[in-house]
Amino acid sequence: MKKVDIFPEALFARLIDIPMFTQIERSDLDDLPGICDLYSYEAGERIIEEGEISTSLFTLLTGEVEILKKGKEKNDIQINTLSTGSTFGETSIFKNEQSTATVRATELSLVMALSRDKFTQYINTHPRAGLVMMTYIVFGLLEKLRSSNELIAQDKEFLVSSDDLETLKSLFPPT
What we know:
Distance between the termini: 60 Å
Strand order of the largest sheet: 1-2-9-4-7
Helix content: 25-40%
Number of strands: 9
């Protein structure tokens, strides 16, 4: 990870293409470069580590990251991939608890970090922009929940059926 300095105009040019920021007025966006930190991550570098406490909301300005979850027998099971424009770490804005997954860059990625404290200050001084950001965060979390529910249903659907058990029984001599 390397901290990156970027001119406010260059950051603004990136933000206007990010879905969460497209509905925020220019006057409100102008204040973001001064309160955000920008980081460059090489492929393989971890941005968030499962089990550690993160206190920032992240926006992927360029690149790609994968979301990894520790399994019972395997570490780092990939559960999702996010590309330019995606946000992650939303829970850290609301709760001070351990991260539920690891986020790792899969290619050179530029990430904007907005700390919980600066986010709170920003939405209090820019309530219209804050409403847009909070709405985007809630809708993003709802989409992640929907996607997770579909995966859970798929996994449960593929459990061993009684027909499968009968087939397995035929493979072994009777006891």
